[in-house]
Amino acid sequence: MILPDFTSVSWLFLLTLIFFIIITGRYFLVAGIFYFVFYKWFPSKFETRKINKKKYKKDQLKKEIKWSIITSLLFSIAGTITVVMWQKGYTKVYTKIDLYGWWYLPVSLLIFMLFHETYYYWIHRWMHKPAVFKIVHKIHHDSNIASPFTAFSFHPLEGLLQAIFLPVMLIILPIHYYVIIIQLTIMTFSSVINHLDIDIYPKNEKNILTKWVIGAAHHAKHHKFFKYNYGLYFTFWDKIEKTQK
Ligand SMILES: [Zn+2]
Ligand SMILES: [Zn+2]
Q1: CA-to-CA distance for 149 and 145, rounded, in angstroms?
Q2: Ligand nearest to the CA of 124
Q3: 23-27, 160-164, 197-201, 237-241: lowest mean pLDDT where?
């Protein structure tokens, strides 16, 4: 198949627009479903699982949606840059599964997530340095009690730090494009679940999910106490660095 030249101005604009529609649509769909199911349709069912009993600050959700749309635009630009880099042959993205075999698909997903975890944990610690926090990370923490819409509520500088991770990883790690789609879906669900403020994982601390995977209970403590629980998907860095509460 002959592809058009994606570096032309009209294609750069069109690709960014397509990504923007997909990424904002994905945000509203996933955050919206969780919001309506857990807060509007069946709130009484989850009352005992709600972490903070206080109400959201006035206009909090509106602000979160505004910042999340700006983050989505940054993710869209990163998506366009990734497509151009792929067309120019700068990435290790591949399209034929046989190239590395089926076994490599879950392995590459796990490698990607472990790198992502490490990158995020350490930039997150850095963003909590007072001088950096004020500029880069305060917007996210304006939501003391998180909501599903907090998922992508970041200052553009933080959005940028998050957006560059994918294209950089694709230069280094061979990844099938199916795995990229799965990873981005996991990332969206994980962020919404972690900011739900309703704990949907088993309460038993020995349960593998509760022990090693971050959920709303874990991340709500980050929004409340600031200096614990910096992780993204997994708890291992917080355990190693003794920053877990
Ligand atoms: Zn958060
Ligand atoms: Zn933080």
Answers
A1: 11
A2: 2
A3: 197-201
